[in-house]
Amino acid sequence: MSAISASSRWHGQAGQVVPVALFGLLIASAALVLMFNTSQKVTEKSQVANAADAAAYSGAVWTARHLNFMAYTNRAMVANHAAVGHFVSYVSWIRYVHDSIEYIDRVTQWIPYVGQYIDTVEEIAEQVREITEQSAEIAVPAIDAWNANFRAAQAETQASLALNNLTELMRETARSYDDTIRINDRDELAALPSEIRTLIDGNVLSQLVSVPSFVRRYTASNDRGSVQELIGASLTANADIERWIGGERGWRESGIGFRLRKRGRTTTTQSANGADWRASDELQYSTRRLFGWSSWRRIGEETSTANATEFDSDYSGVPSYYNVAGAPAHQSLQIAAIATKRQTQVHTADLLGMTAQRSPIAVAALARVQFRRPSGNAFAALAANEREYAHLFNPFWEAKLAPANLDFAR
What are phi and psi of 240, to 5 degrees? Predict the structure, then answer.
């Protein structure tokens, strides 16, 4: 009887271990599922953060390249316009040379040997003049047409900024990480908690307005003389250029009782309707008087001249260009990329009531497009506390990623 009773007690105690073992197995399974789901979400969150960084930075680089393209084309248009000024000045100078030789030829034609020599020189000068004028008839309209192409390209660049291509670029960048990641998606952002949704919507909507309106088209009539000032600065940046365009082309000689100079000068006008270069060259003399020198007088019958509109009646110059909107300031652009991914699209184990949350995984990345003069000997140095105002005449726009992300996941 005692043996039978002991066996029954042992079997009864063995049955009590099974519920404990099952409960322990359940706890371990839940922990494994929790660890798996957590690791999956951490991995996905990291990928979403990387996609947000890449999208914001690529958007900032894309925007900076657009601004730098406008700066390059602005500089190219001014340089082309100045090149026309050089060409017109050269035509005027060649005409002066030919007119002077022709005048000398009329005076010396009866002098033996000298007259024949001057005749030959005059014929050569006439041929050079014809070639130069024919070249100007081709070059001046071609340069003006090339500037028109630059203005059309600037308008296309502005349209690219205005047509929300920035957002599409950032979305394509994010898709290269994961096709399910969305950038600045209003429907996805609507699922975020209400306390942060207003802030996010404000940033996204502000970006849609600030990027297209950051630059503005200006004309020579409403830019307060900025383009005319820039053209003048480009002509005075070099002493030889300044002397050739705005100073005295040629030479000067002085004697005891006389002075002789070759004078040449070129001026420009620019409006929203067109432009012109006007060059003149002449030989002048002055004689000594009792109390100084007489005024300069022209030698010859007339002044040799040349005009840009002579070779292109519709010459435009730089009638319009694009620049940063508003008054000069240290302006910059902020590019925000809010990357989201639905938690239902994360590969997790939906066991033991552990279902995906409605709020998506969301990470915001910020990048900045700023104007900064590079350091180095190639550029003029600025003072320690001085910064150059942002503008679109130097291609100094760069993209910089903000150091931290904002994680909105719950």
Answer: -65, -40
Cα 284-287-289 angle, rounded to 5 deg: 150
- Cα separation, 320 vs 323, in Å, equals 10
Token pair belonging to 264: 């040449």
**Mapping DSSP to helix (H, G, I), strand (E, B) and coil, where does residue 279 land?**
strand
How far apart CA 171 and CA 59 sit, in angstroms, is 10
Is the separation of the CB atoms in 328 and 345 below 8 Å?
no
- Given the DSSP bridges, would you call strands 297-307 and 292-293 parallel, antiparallel or unpaired? unpaired
Spatial distance between the Cα atoms of 232 and 72, rounded to a whole number of angstroms: 18
pLDDT digit string, tens, across residues 105-151: 887 877 877 778 888 899 999 999 999 999 999 999 999 999 999 99
DSSP 151-170: HHHHHHHHHHHHTTHHHHHH
Q: What letter represents residue 79's amino acid?
A: A
β-bridge pairing 258-270 and 292-293: unpaired
Q: Which two tokens stand for residue 85?
A: 């000024």
The one-letter code for the residue type at 237 is: A
Has residue 8 got a pLDDT over 70? no
Q: What angle do CA 169, 173, 175 make, to 5 degrees?
A: 115
* pLDDT tens figures, 196-241: 676 677 777 788 888 889 999 999 989 888 888 888 888 887 777 8
Torsion angle, alpha carbons of 166, 172, 176, 180, to 10? 120
d(CA 179, CA 172): 9
Q: Per-residue b/e over 338-364, b at no fewer than 16 CB within 10 Å?
A: bbbbbbeebebeeeeeeeeeeebbbbb
Strands 320-324 and 332-341: unpaired
Structure tokens at 175: 């898709």
At what angle are helices 165-175 and 114-162 packed, to 10 degrees? 70
- In SS3 terms, 228-273 reads as HHHHHHHHHCCHHHHHHHCCCCCCEEECCCEEEEEEEEEEEEECCC
Alpha carbon 319 to chain centroid distance? 19
Strand partners, 297: 285
